[in-house]
Amino acid sequence: MLNGFTRTFPPLRYLTAEQEESIHRGALFTMETTGMQIEHDGARRLLADAGCAVDDDANRVRMPAWLVEECLRKVPTHFRLRARDSANDLMVGGDTVYFMQGMGMRYVDLETWETRPATAAEHREAMIVADALPHTHLAEGWEIYTDRRNIPPVMGMLENLASAIRYSSKTQVAGNIQDTEIFAIMMAQAVGTDLFPEIEHACPLTIQHGGAQAAFRYAEAGIPFVPALSVNQGATGPATLAGAVVLKVAETMGWVVMSQVHTPGAPMAIHHGISAIDMRTGDKLLGTPARGVGTGMMNQMLRRYGIPIWSNTGFASNSKKIDFQAGYEKSLGTLLSALAGGQVQMFQGGSSTELLYSNELAVMEDDVAGWIGGVLEGFIFDDETLAIDLINEVGPIPGHYMAQAHTRKWWNKEDYFPQVADTESYASWVTTGKRDMLDRARDKVAEILSTHTPSPLTDSQEDALEDVLKQARDFYRKRGVISDAEWETYLQELSLGDGR
Amino acid sequence: MDQQTLADLGRAIKEYDGDAAAALAAQALSEDIEPVRVLAALTDAIREVGDGFGAGELFLPELVSAADAMEQAMPIVDAAFTEHGGERASQGKIVAGTVAGDIHNIGKTILCTLLTADGFQVVDLGIDVPVDGFVKAVEEEKPDLVAMSALLTITAQEQKKVIAALEEAGLRSGVKVIVGGGAISQAFADSIGADGYSPTAPGGVSLARELLSID
């Protein structure tokens, strides 16, 4: 099992006990008074039987507080996420913090900063790099390069998931659009892995048919699932942080009640992110301090209920480049969420408002993840680390610590030493070509790609994966989602392989 | 008297008071002010708010609130036009919506608001609009232009299907089609046979004006 990082001190608390209670009460009131719009007939029937007031004409479900409280208690506080290689299993929950590969629609050229659809080979490389990075505990192959060259979009994510499972033995994210979860579940079962799928949510206060259906399908397959409850302040939710958190908590309650009535004890997490928008353009702002504060507030509420947290505070920046802005927006947001009790941080490699994914950025941010992990793990405190006897033994100058057994044992135990940050002396930096962190990250990517071999699938797993893809292609062809012209181009693209 | 009611109506829009706008529109009509003058008071006010937005003095919440207030008054004005045996004139009619499978509302709503503020008559079909929904709206509303939004790569293809369905129904040549949204690029717009693409809502308004040859 991957241990991730353990936060060794209480999480940052933004809300007083009274404020926490007011948010909880406000959300209960909202669920009882206004409720959720749930566009799934079967879900509404289940909820009516469980004691909700259901208005089928308006698709509206009002949930009594006692039922909400009861269902909140049913959500497991921890769950194991099995990877296809058990060494990469995760135990999500509590004070353990994991980092997840970020997402980005397109491949970016680091010379021109232009983006374009990615090839199969580029997706393969992204997964191999993520597989090798020590602080990337979960992989996000599903949403890396959703824009794939010549692949019909509905098949893009499924082709991505197959590639991700082939080239990384870490647990994978998945999703649900257009029934793709059917095939994602089949792939997971074919190789004996769990998934960590996020389910589309419609904000405010709406669960669409497809989202409810996917949550039920994942729950029936025993796979933990994660409603994605992002909000744009002032657009899809209140402009105030406290109001946005009330709305997100209310929606959390709606998803929890629907899911726990369907499958009591179903493992689930909540994916959340609170963002301001630029009121001149409507563009989402991903790097504001309020986003970090709102995430902290929401983390605190979810910890109150013991619901595991997927935070996206650092999943992307508004910057179009890999630069100082991307660095501070993503890293500080992630640090804040991790300090405030977030358990899974979506982070490494994505930027430009979800538009780009870069291996080089992933490598650099894996260093940041290690840095944040160092902050979370803090220090070791016992007689030996206090070193009182040693200090008295070494005494004043000319005494020093370099030759001490204590130093040899401890110098690298409480700190993180970056892989690609520039730590050279100035003179050495000049002699070696004045290279910066991005240059070093490029070397690291090349090194990983020439040396790292992910643990391979067995032949029967490969066959099973290919069979699921074939079934999915047939399914969407018959459904008319893939046109004849798209099909021809798709087949030609597939014949090129992935450069393996 | 006329001037006072119309001035109050304009002010109601600029104060984002939809109830007052609806009441004042009804009052103006009951004072026998011609529907065309009532409409002008509304469009002048919304344009003023739009200009403030363009100048960076007002922001989306003000713009969308003013458009909402106008929307409350419009059915009353439209009914008066119908009663007088006519239809209100606009610089163009636009049908807009977010395509099937996509629930992203905000970008499309901002575009609709800016188009309204610019003087277009806008029919907002909402989110998750199926192909048939667009085709039916084009048949019934007879717009000059269709605007489609898609945020997700996976739903962007729906825009292509709508264009194909419009062609099949023999409606394509009668309308301009523009596309936008997070997953869309100029290359994609060209590849599906759209007439135009804009990455931003204000750009979408300029594009609509350009395609409909409005100065």
Record keyword descriptors for this entry:
heterodimer; A: 500 residues; alpha/beta; eight-stranded mixed β-sheet; four-stranded mixed β-sheet; 18 helices; B: 215 residues; five-stranded parallel β-sheet; 9 helices; 5 strands; 59% helix; globular
How would you describe this structure to a colleague?
The complex is a heterodimer of chains A (500) and B (215). Chain A is an alpha/beta fold. Chain A is 47% helix and 13% strand. Chain A is built from 18 helices and 20 strands. Chain A has helices spanning 17-33, 41-50, 65-74, 120-132, 153-167, 180-191, 209-220, 241-262, 289-305, 324-339, 359-377, 383-386, 388-394, 405-410, 426-431, 437-451, 459-478, 484-495; strands at residues 5-6, 36-38, 53-55, 60-62, 79-81, 90-92, 96-101, 106-108, 115-116, 138-139, 171-172, 198-200, 206-207, 226-232, 270-277, 284-285, 309-311, 344-348, 350-351, 356-357. In chain A, the strands form five sheets. In chain A, strands 1, 7, 12, 14, 15, 16, 17 and 18 form an eight-stranded mixed sheet that branches. Chain A has a four-stranded mixed sheet with strand order 3-4-2-13. In chain A, strands 9-8-20-19 form a four-stranded mixed sheet. With 215 residues, chain B is an alpha/beta fold. Helix content of chain B is 59%, strand content 10%. Chain B has helices spanning 2-14, 18-30, 35-54, 60-83, 106-117, 131-141, 153-168, 186-191, 201-211, and strands at 93-98, 121-124, 145-149, 176-180, 196-197. In chain B, strands 2-1-3-4-5 form a five-stranded parallel sheet, sandwiched between helices. In chain B, β3 (145-149), α7 (153-168) and β4 (176-180) form a beta-alpha-beta unit. In chain B, α1 packs parallel to α3 (35-54). Chain B starts with a helix and ends with a helix. The model of chain B has no long low-confidence stretch (mean pLDDT 89).
